[in-house]
Specification:
alpha+beta; 305 residues; disordered C terminus; Rossmann fold; 9-stranded mixed beta sheet; globular
Length: 305
């Protein structure tokens, strides 16, 4: 393959090789995943993805089918597949996506890559992740519970965002909590001053808020789970790990494909510490409560706020 069409990365500590039939596609992938080349620790066999340039994009939905260890993705000019047993993926993508690195990654490559990572020791957990006091504070709750809104409020306070929806748990050789930063999606009314782009997401129009560039890998070796609920006033209180585990164990579609691995990951992170955060209408006040406690560490239980 000609020079300039192969890209070697380390994503969540896993070696990843992306090869492309077109130098422009390889350059777009290099731009989209530039931060991951900073990590120098590897674990396991490399994940290998190949991109082939196809025709122009067409209108229509992108459909994803998962059957055991295999994934198939079709539509909108995209045709891709991934095999978790072989740790390989192949995708034919519209040639014009080479000029749109964010779309190429977010709508195509991420789907294949995260499918393979999730089946090679990086188990997805439905929670937002915010770095606070050197720990990953995992905000847990069903869709619509406030994870993305709190992530936006944390971003406004200068906190590092691991993810506004999904973190990845590594159990071997030791526990690590990985983020995969992508833009935060919130309702436009909840993102004053942040709106640069809107996108239809899950049938609803959302503001797309880019996550600021990071200076360190999106990973933590310690953390805590914070289960979200609605209320009149902000309150943070300790709960039993089993209560947090029960909240996380209500797996939504997509997260239920790895039930055993999810149960193990949930047990590991809830053992680090578990709290319930009652949200008011002011997300900034909730972030203040988290910063007041977790900036001092996660070992001690908080008094009710």
């Amino acid at each position: 393959m000609p020079i300039g069409t192969s890209l070697q990365l380390l994503i969540m500590g896993r070696p990843v090789v992306i090869r492309a039939s077109d130098p422009a596609l390889a350059a777009a992938a290099a731009d989209a995943y530039a931060d991951w080349r900073l990590i120098d620790r590897t674990d396991g066999s490399p994940i290998q993805l190949r991109l082939e340039a196809g025709d122009e994009a067409v209108l229509g939905p992108l459909e994803i089918e998962v059957a055991g260890s295999r994934l198939r993705m079709t539509g909108a000019g995209v045709e891709g597949r991934a095999d978790a047993r072989a740790l390989t993926g192949l995708c034919r993508v519209p040639r014009d996506l080479a000029a749109q690195p964010a779309r190429l990654a977010g709508e195509v490559i991420d789907t294949l890559l995260l499918f393979l990572l999730a089946r090679s020791g990086r188990t997805p957990l439905h929670a937002a992740g915010v770095m606070c006091g050197g720990a990953a504070v995992l905000l847990a709750g069903p869709s619509g519970s406030g994870k993305s809104t709190l992530s936006l409020a944390a971003m406004a306070r200068g906190l590092q965002i691991l993810s506004d929806d999904t973190v990845y748990i590594q159990l071997q050789p030791r526990l690590r909590i990985w983020g995969f930063p992508r833009p935060v999606h919130v309702f436009p009314a909840d993102a004053p001053g942040f709106i640069q782009e809107t996108r239809l997401r899950g049938g609803k129009m959302k503001a797309v808020v880019p996550v600021p560039p990071r200076s360190e890998p999106p990973v933590a070796d310690r953390g805590a789970v914070v289960v979200l609920e609605r209320g009149e006033a902000v309150r943070l209180q300790a709960i039993e790990p089993s209560v947090a585990a029960a909240a996380l164990s209500r797996l939504e579609p997509g997260f239920d494909l790895l039930a055993r691995e999810s149960a193990e990951a949930i047990a590991a992170v809830t053992a680090l510490g578990a709290w319930r955060l009652t949200l008011s209408r002011d997300p900034a006040a909730a972030i203040d409560a988290l910063m007041d406690h977790f900036s001092a560490g996660v070992a001690s239980a908080p008094a009710a706020l």
